[in-house]
Amino acid sequence: MVSDTVTDRQDYADFFIVAILKNVMYWQKYPAVQSLEVDGLDREREGFVRAIIYGLRVAEAWAGVCQLIETLSPYMERRGHWTVWQQVLDQAFDQAQRRDDTVKGAILALLLARLSQKQSKIKETIRCYRHALRLARRAGDQYNRGRACTNLAFLYIEQGRWQRADMLCHCALTIFEKENNLHGLAHTENHLGILYLRMGQWIEDERVWSKARPHLEQACRYWQIRDDVHGLMYGYMNLGIYYFLTESPQKSLEFSKKALDCAEQAGEQLLRGSISVNIGLAYQLQQDYARAEEYSLQAEKIFRQFYNSYEMANVQKNLGVIYLRQQKFPEASHYLHLALQNWRELDQKYLLAETMLYLCECEQAKNNYLEAEKWLRQAEALLLKEDRLSQRVKAHLEKTRRSQLN
């Protein structure tokens, strides 16, 4: 009878550890991993994910596995492999906490935040960035502290917390300037540009919008120096928005199409949808509704693939408006109701009210004034609860009221 001795078990464990270490090192040196070459990574995805999962079980592989995770996160995010990557990041972050590894913990918290943000999980994203900020402070890690500051600032911009966002952006700029880190400087300049775009949207003031442009152009210069196609995608995308807001549709199309080219080069799937929405809006400004519809439908298909309900609701609202302007009322009503359903599920009352105003317009155009009145009253009830309204929505509300009275 053969028995398994302690020595045999130890030899097997050592063999297992060595095999895992070799596998992790293999993927670290793999050419497609080092270059983030999309086609090669698509073919080998199951192999490197398996290596990471096994590597997380072995203490000796910790540093190499963390490096692999950080290297491959952009690819996994852009290609939409969010479920499996969430599991990997959760396991890795749990390991960092057990090891009291604040440096790796801060990096993993940042990656978790970025992934949550792509899935529109805003509360979870803010929680992860705050966690990253605390860990980076404890570790004395200035670079990742700057990253947490600038990325948290972006979320506060989206929530209209502009003073807090401005403070965090300037804190990040100070850090990145001391570190001479062009990557961080580019993202922070980009976020400051977005801050002024958002503020300008609320007050419809070109003097505020004009402050956005130099920050966005500076961000693009930094990304061009670094030959960073993915970063340039964001810069061009936001310049496209800037020119849309300042009613220069041709310039908006120019930058938005440059952004789309960059997204395709970078293998960025979800943002292709967002950029297509912007192109659709620029064509809508030119009253080229056929092209506006074409790009908006492309965006809808992408958002459906990635189950992004916020972006889906936004493009459905845009499609509703496109069909409304063409007096295709059944199609307009269909898409506006779809957007309404998504805004309700997301508890986005402001955007819900805005969509109701378009439904009111739709019913007015069909001479269904009783139904139009119903939508107007519902929209007013929601907007009265808001602390402030953007100039655009105020104007939309007043226009809809006047049309209803007439």
Explain briefly what this protein structure is.
The protein contains 20 helices and no strands. It is mainly α.
Structure notes:
- It is built from 20 helices and no strands.
- Helices cover 85% and strands 0% of the residues.
- The protein is mainly alpha-helical and 406 residues long.
- Helix 1 runs antiparallel to helix 3 (38-55) and helix 8 packs parallel to helix 10.
Relevant terms:
406 residues; single chain; 0% strand; 20 helices; elongated; 85% helix; mainly alpha
- Category from helices, strands and their pairing: mainly alpha
Number of helices: 20
By DSSP, the count of extended strands is 0
Question: Average pLDDT value?
Answer: 91
What secondary-structure arrangement, pairings included, does this model have?
Blueprint: H1 6-29, H2 31-35, H3 38-55, H4 62-78, H5 82-99, H6 102-118, H7 122-139, H8 142-158, H9 162-179, H10 182-203, H11 206-225, H12 229-245, H13 249-266, H14 270-285, H15 289-306, H16 309-325, H17 329-346, H18 349-365, H19 369-383, H20 391-405
